[in-house]
Specification:
Layout lengths: L2 H10 L5 E9 L5 E9 L3 E6 L4 E5 L19 E2 L9
Length: about 90
Amino acid sequence: MKIEDFENAIHALGVNGLEITEVRYSATNGGEVQGVYGKIGELTFLWWDANGRGFRFDINPNQESCTVVSHPEYLNYVRDDDFDLKFD
């Protein structure tokens, strides 16, 4: 899939406050998307794999070691099919 396909499918989810933060793609494979990162607010992080399957990570604001996330690719995401993308 191309970047535009992912952007359209993510916007079609209709989730208020959902922001795409990073797109990873393969320059050697015709620009095919490898993964897309996003977030809702400051506590919910999302990741979509190359097939559009959704994954989620929620930060517990009461946890003392909670800091600013600068590398979302290292979070321990769990599968969340509520965020699966549907491509036209």
